[in-house]
Write a structure and sequence with these properties.
alpha+beta, 14 strands, Deoxyribonuclease I, Chain A, six-stranded mixed beta sheet
Length: 268
Amino acid sequence: MKIVSWNVNGLRAVHRKGHWNDIFTLAPDVLCLQEIKAHEDQLPEEVLHVQGFHAFFNPSQTKRGYSGTALYSKRKPLDVSYGLPVAITEKHNLYTDGYGEANREGRVITAEFPEFFVVTVYTPNVKDDLSRLPLRHKHWDPAFLEHCVTLQNKKPVVFCGDLNVAHTPLDLARPKENEGHKGFTVEEREGVDNMIAEGFTDTLRMFFEGDGYYTWWSPWGGARARNVGWRLDYVFASEQLEEAVENAAIHPDVFGSDHCPVSVDLVL
């Protein structure tokens, strides 16, 4: 079973550029998308209804053309939920900040299958001036992790998406220059440390060590061609699934976004 995750940076834009069908050359069984920037009534038929897939969309409820996630699955899930549970948002006071209400920005879809849960997530960006760092560090990251741990107490979990952080210095081309900046602060990296401490495995690191494995590149200065990038996109799996993880990969040869897809293959 292959799970593919991709920040499309605008689902309509990917389609308009002619790259929508490219993602299906990876043969996903479950396709998780982030930053779709569209409501269902704005999507072309080819994107809205993909033959052989059940499709689920969680667009931003705060404004159109912003954020949002989607999940396509060959198998119909047992259940699908959108956003983080109310009890968790209340516990972590995950309401509005200066930008809006993060849990109404279409950032999470959870699909339950017989063997496990699959969660797609688009983690809030802390902004260049780090003005959304308190929201992320004190509210969003703990709330999202509690959601995944709660699921994991029922059955194993695979969560994937754009976490908007390079976890270690190996996960970006220029760590020294970016220390303390958006995407590479101590607080953001701590969120990933906590995920690992709770029993979730960074699947790519099961197979690949070292640097150079990036999933996002600036559109300026030929960064992608020179592979001067960041690893912001991940697939994490519960430790119970480690033996089932056959392969993990990034796919820089799939274009259409400033991010490339990432994937994991599971033998269940």
